[in-house]
Amino acid sequence: MSAVRKAVVVGTLRKSQMKEQLEKGKRLDGRDLLQQRKLSIETGVIEKASGSARVRLGDTEIVAGAKVEMGRPFPDTPDQGLLIVTAEVLPIASAYAEPGPPNEEAIELARVSDRGIRESEMLDFSKLVIKKGEHVYSVFVDVAVLNDDGGLFDAASYAIVSALSTAKRPNATLAEDGSLTVLDETSDLEVKTLPVATTFAKIDGKIVFDPNTEEQSMMDARLTLVTDSEGKFVAGQKGGSGVFTFEEIRELARTSAERGIEIRKAIRDTIENGSQKT
Amino acid sequence: MSAVRKAVVVGTLRKSQMKEQLEKGKRLDGRDLLQQRKLSIETGVIEKASGSARVRLGDTEIVAGAKVEMGRPFPDTPDQGLLIVTAEVLPIASAYAEPGPPNEEAIELARVSDRGIRESEMLDFSKLVIKKGEHVYSVFVDVAVLNDDGGLFDAASYAIVSALSTAKRPNATLAEDGSLTVLDETSDLEVKTLPVATTFAKIDGKIVFDPNTEEQSMMDARLTLVTDSEGKFVAGQKGGSGVFTFEEIRELARTSAERGIEIRKAIRDTIENGSQKT
Amino acid sequence: MSAVRKAVVVGTLRKSQMKEQLEKGKRLDGRDLLQQRKLSIETGVIEKASGSARVRLGDTEIVAGAKVEMGRPFPDTPDQGLLIVTAEVLPIASAYAEPGPPNEEAIELARVSDRGIRESEMLDFSKLVIKKGEHVYSVFVDVAVLNDDGGLFDAASYAIVSALSTAKRPNATLAEDGSLTVLDETSDLEVKTLPVATTFAKIDGKIVFDPNTEEQSMMDARLTLVTDSEGKFVAGQKGGSGVFTFEEIRELARTSAERGIEIRKAIRDTIENGSQKT
Amino acid sequence: MTTTLLNADKIRLDGRKLDELRPVKIDVGVIKNADGSALIEFGKNKIIAAVYGPKEVHPRHLTKPDRAIVKCRYHMTPFSTDTRKNPSFSRREIEISKVIRQALEPAIILEDYPRSSIEVYMEVLQSDGGSRCAALSAASVALADAGINMRDLVAGCAAGKIGGEIVLDIDDTEDKEGEADMPTAIMPSLGLVTLFQLDGKLSESEFQKTFEFAIKGCMKVYQIQREALMNKYFGQSEPMQESTE
Amino acid sequence: MTTTLLNADKIRLDGRKLDELRPVKIDVGVIKNADGSALIEFGKNKIIAAVYGPKEVHPRHLTKPDRAIVKCRYHMTPFSTDTRKNPSFSRREIEISKVIRQALEPAIILEDYPRSSIEVYMEVLQSDGGSRCAALSAASVALADAGINMRDLVAGCAAGKIGGEIVLDIDDTEDKEGEADMPTAIMPSLGLVTLFQLDGKLSESEFQKTFEFAIKGCMKVYQIQREALMNKYFGQSEPMQESTE
Amino acid sequence: MTTTLLNADKIRLDGRKLDELRPVKIDVGVIKNADGSALIEFGKNKIIAAVYGPKEVHPRHLTKPDRAIVKCRYHMTPFSTDTRKNPSFSRREIEISKVIRQALEPAIILEDYPRSSIEVYMEVLQSDGGSRCAALSAASVALADAGINMRDLVAGCAAGKIGGEIVLDIDDTEDKEGEADMPTAIMPSLGLVTLFQLDGKLSESEFQKTFEFAIKGCMKVYQIQREALMNKYFGQSEPMQESTE
């Protein structure tokens, strides 16, 4: 309710200012329409995780932690490792985030993040098998939003890609009697491509990249597109209760592919150097 | 609350009309006191189920779907297949049906349905065993109420009996190494008797058969009796916050047994012919 | 809310009376500051449990039931039996107890009770193993509060200790093919020490032992200390939104140890004689 | 499945005759905090019922302007069963809570308590066959103990079929291995049925005979209920005149 | 994984051409109690959508003073899938309910129903590929059947990529073994996209072609939606003039 | 179980002396959206506490006319533990949330915020032994950062017993293999205990010595809390005068 009231106030005051700015090709925070906020990535922030990264995208802050553990395969995919992705907008993240089980927004965030990893074939699950039908590696990717200023799909994808790219997995061997032994040394998890998300919002007929919370409260609709290292589209998700024209969708595909290239470069630099700011 | 208010309105207007009709041996919808609504049954409506049926009883519409899958027996019945019965009054079914986990009414519907199947010994669970203590067939019976105009116990029982009577089960064999193979051909599930429910309501001291929603809102109490193909009573359930006299219970047993005969005939015709209307 | 209002009434009326009494070294129910209410213990009250006891502490009444069943060990403790402790303040127990899953208070009660059993090493879990890594005995301790007049930690600990001290466990043997057989004769569970809780409340700067519900509603803070048969401290828990001075904590440790001796004596008498009142 | 539930003389495993009740004992006023309460021991069943109310309704939108609502919960403690019961509320407990509520409501003069809630909690400390009938019989006494205006007590008892014979008051073993169970509750003075369930297999004549047995059982339970209340309120077993029956 | 989804003549496993829809059938007004309803059969999908409302909002604090709120639930019955679906509401159902709600909201003139709730329930009785598009297409017809004021119908259809080719309307097998799936929904008369999702792998040119296919599919579904509504309200297939398109 | 937690010189596995704290670092104001926040690194613990409020109470019936209510949640992220933690809220988290709430409430001047709610959320990003004490120490700083009126800071630290010796500030390994753990929190200026727990086995004299250690640890944490707040608000480490202590 407070959120509603806040939105109303924004509607009558800031929205007209935003409209004015958009006509000049600018946004309330001074950015150009297609300009991303400052991005910084730090890996290895959670020593107890197999891989981890903290991403700051403007005032949005997200930590992704990956854990690789022993698991049992699903009956219908006995020769594949497992991927489990969860996301939580922690109650510290904003006045509107509620403690409790993940809501609709957090579930959407987890599921879109999951699709990016899965459909890009970033991980080769056929290599994450210890014994077919019995023992596989389970990859848990847990996303925690620490501060929410919008752009969660994008920031989460950068955090996940950075965490997985720097993740180690245990090495387990199977004894003759069927018992598992986890060895001391670990291996790289091995990542084959870097799927990154780009989110666009439509506000007052204009398209902006990387909307913040205030912009999201003004937007008609949102489009997230995820591209991999080859520039292929691996996931997409429209959000918001508004619409896009056919041409807007077509155009956003082109823009998303371009933006993906820059972002992947920043992530690759981080992975190699440990942390990176743009 | 709306339901409450509706009931109040019914109370002052329709209830006096009903009383008038009942004294003439008639009901508001023109039926005689012990007359059932039009019943139609169609089997094989869900191709992906092992067996299925749609029942229309007046404006009430129910689909029952049976699935037979591989399962593990309970520790205390290692030589018995499993039966799991659920029921949901879907939110499409009426303005008073809420989405969410089954409420008290739906749980009662599932449990009375379960008792009808189990106590009539309709299925021979000792034949649904692949390997004692390890592999058995699980029979899932899921009841979905699509439109609720009363008589759910009865319509559900007709749908379940029709679904199970036309159900196929997989054939699995056990290899020497203990692994299960599910064969291509299926077998009939084999049903040994047809337990059917008959529900009576007491309104203003009179007993009516097959009450609809409006009649249920006026009734003092409800009695459901389930009889099998030999005319034996296999389940019973009184509902509502009213009472029955001893003699009413005795008399309803007699009436229920008679009605069961007709209904089982209709179901048997359906099973043989694929669909049936009375 | 009713609880709140009641508390307010108590505050203006009874609390000033209590203050008056406390200054005389007395309490509203006539007890001395460190006097426990009448305690009675009866064991073997639930024949179907492996061990059980009913404790009455003033008007507080608690039943603890222990069940010892076959279980599987946790992966990280393959050579240890299991302990599962739950507690419920049943809705019969007071006007403020709500039906439903255990709330914060009941969870705290269960967890403090668990710590008393576990940390005192009352049970030797290494002896509760049938086959390492595969079959162990699970000890379930379920606490049911029948009437709540305060002192739940203490009364629960007496009930648990009495139930476990008189409990039998099944004897299972492992056949060559790995199947378990549960023999007819049972064994004593064997208890090595008697951890008992003592709870103190601070009211108006004074410390009282064994507060009842009314006193709890007036108290600033609560301290529970659990000692074993050797007088060692095995668990502690401060409660309430008030504070203790350093010296109060130190002093309460001394008092708790003394009180534990008397209470354990009463429990030992009960275990030997079947029931005991002080 | 091969247990012989009856011997050659038609005596049951626990020594009872076909139409004999298990020992039944009712204590009134066992829960200090409750407005009314009763402990019933019915064979191995040990069940406490407690009543709170009439009280304000929460949540408020459930309030009825012209009468009380009744909340009922039949609940089993984890240690009450042979194998430990999972503490989460089961579908069985939900169904039994519902049928017991509908068995008690006809006896309570709800119109005497508009805008109120009457809460009835039954806790099964140890269960045996027939626990729902025992629980509601205790609940009915607890309602009386709470001073709630009632048209009649509600007395419950099951009858059933075991070893081919119709019997009164099925216990746990008989329930598992017997052929039918018919839990029944009545308002004894008024001669009205408030709870009726059946599972098993009975021919029509068996149905009629089982029902007759069940009513007889309820009348016996009623007698014990009345004695328990007399005992509590007059400190004695119920005396001479049985004129109300 | 080794199934060949296309034969040498680029014919799909079920005999369809690359740009061919599965058979689609819509019946309007199938749920008596609902304010509006529709049954869609889309390939093997059998989905019923029903609309209740405009009605009072519960809980009240969700009320919007100037417009209606829309509640949407996409739900699968346990028997709707090859392997029985667990009856508890899944994360997949939660996500799909959300995207469908956001696909329907732009079409509903919410301002016409201040302080109201419009409830849209979709029940999947049998599922096949493309169930979310089928469900929302039925929901849109159900909204029209309920007389809710709308800017346009919403028509949904997926396109995708299988065996290296862009195809229209992915079914279950194609979804599991194919390369990409792009569920899309549009307001056909207005030419606006209300739902868009993608999973799979598409180059940019494939993306553009798939999107084009999806729009064509939506237009075909739209035609069937209109016919179904005409049929219900005028007792005939939609006649001559197609001028609004 | 056979790990030697102390070497011959009574030096602990991580090189600490018996009465030595792990490295502790507190950053204030780390969560932009929050009214107050702090990140504490305490050994390997990384915990963020954030405060929202004073704000309206939801649901309303929890409102207190004369003071604020405090909501507290101690929560662990799934990646915070050696083996991944199940994301559902555990009984352990519920208990710790409660004792932390009761440890902070005495320090907050609740009467200054009638009809309000003060929400304190602690998120464990990485856990090590002593996480509850670290979390509440961060929460206390976050409350101060939010400008909430307080009687004192609350500083927490555990002491315990390992390898037969009383030690300060138990870490994860010491917790699992040691003999006792006594989490304690105090209001350092006022000399009052607001949190006290114990599990393990201690004789009475060991109890007294452990408690003494715990208080010393709390005083050290208090110093770090004050420095962190000074740093934030005056851009420097806390200077000269320690007169308030």
Largest interface: A-E, 37 and 36 residues
Average pLDDT figure of chain D: 94
- Our measurement of the CA-to-CA distance between the termini of chain D, rounded to an integer number of angstroms, reads 41 Å
Question: Could you tell me how far the N terminus lies from the C terminus of chain A, measured between alpha carbons in angstroms?
Answer: 37 Å
CATH class of chain A equals Alpha Beta
Which strands sit side by side, in order, in the main sheet of chain D?
1-2-3-5-4
CATH topology of chain D: Ribosomal Protein S5, domain 2
Work out the oligomeric state of the chains in this entry: heterohexamer
The number of helical runs of chain A is 6
Describe this structure in words.
The complex is a heterohexamer, with three copies of chain A (278 residues) and three copies of chain D (245 residues). Chain A has helices at residues 2-12, 14-23, 104-119, 152-165, 213-218, 246-273; strands at 39-43, 51-57, 60-71, 82-89, 129-131, 135-147, 168-174, 180-188, 196-203, 206-209, 221-227, 233-239, 244-245, 275-277. The model of chain A has no long low-confidence stretch (mean pLDDT 93). Chain A is α+β, with helices and mostly antiparallel strands. Chain A is elongated, with a radius of gyration of 20 Å. Chain A starts with a helix and ends with a strand. In chain A, 31% of the residues lie in helices and 34% in strands. Chain A has a single domain (31-277), classed as Ribosomal Protein S5, domain 2 (2-Layer Sandwich). In chain A, strands 1, 2, 3, 4, 5, 6 and 14 form a seven-stranded mixed β-sheet that branches. Chain D is of the alpha+beta class. Chain D has a single domain (24-232), classed as 2-Layer Sandwich (Ribosomal Protein S5, domain 2). Chain D is 27% helix and 29% strand. Chain D contains four helices and nine strands, in the order E-E-E-E-H-E-H-E-E-H-E-E-H. Chain D has helices at 91-104, 131-145, 172-177, 204-234; strands at residues 24-28, 36-42, 45-55, 69-76, 117-126, 155-162, 165-168, 180-187, 192-202. Chain D has a five-stranded mixed β-sheet. Chain D has a four-stranded antiparallel β-sheet with strand order 7-6-8-9. In chain D, helix 1 (91-104) packs across helix 2 and helix 2 runs parallel beside helix 4 (204-234). The longest helix of chain D has 31 residues, at 204-234. Chain D is globular, with a radius of gyration of 18 Å. Strand 13 (244-245) of chain C pairs antiparallel with strand 9 of chain F, so a sheet runs across the interface.
